[in-house]
Records
---
Amino acid sequence: MKTKIILSRITAWALTFAMVFALILALTLTVSAADFSGSGWEFDSATGTLTVTTNEGTTAWRSERGDNFEPIDVKNVVIGEGVTALGDEAFQGTGITSIEIPDRVTSIAILTV
């Protein structure tokens, strides 16, 4: 009888721990998830950060974003490991305050006006 009570309490504690851990994990993923994303890009509206992860993503975000956000909403750009070239008009019309272009980016398209 005493053994069943102990096992019952251990099970209850284990389940409680698992539920709390799952809740913390879900909240963490929700906070870090992008609001909008597409082919090689994602946008976090809370921080105004556009992250591009492919060469195509440097321009795809413009056509794929729809009415979800305006280019001027982009304040920060993070250029991911997979990007070696910036497409034509990649960040024209945005509200970027600064951008760091890594050495691995070897091609920047000419912007048209």
---
Amino acid sequence: MGYGEYDINCIDDSKLKHGLLCFYTLKNPHFPELFIKTDHSITCCAYAKKRKNYVAVGDSHGNIAIYNIQKCVNTGNKSPDHESKNLENKHNDIVWEVKWITSNEREETLVSISGDGRIIEWSLRKGLELTDLYQLKRETNPNHKDVYAGADVEKKTGAMSFINTGGLSIDFPEGQGMNYFTATEDCTILQCQTSYAE
């Protein structure tokens, strides 16, 4: 279970709270058997399906980290096996959800969605490598005008389609590693494919 506190209006990094990744057992569900402190608040986490000892977390600063829980327990080393903190093209906003996906052709990979509107696939083949799957765009509504940046924009023309929107949630139907659905902060649900970026 991931924990953290995030103040969206706080611009001073020194005042931001750390996060905790906690693991409970049925023997003692009130106190974690293992906990890992993180630099930033955890906003989401997910266990791998094939490598059951791997758990991925997303945080309030756009970072992805993957922990090998078996190694944490056996060695006491609680640092992540893989992390995006120092990668140039990582998310630059809150990571709202991470999902592990598998398909017949590929190994298990991680997909993340963020408030920056990017959907990224992460591979563990050679360290942590990323591939942009999709950049979410604000959907146009042909039934009304929108006022944006002080000017009337007729939505019928599709003039708003260049503006990015944030992503909130992502889901892959069972057994379909290629097709997925995503929800955006402007209240739309999109059906997408990992092999098609439009």
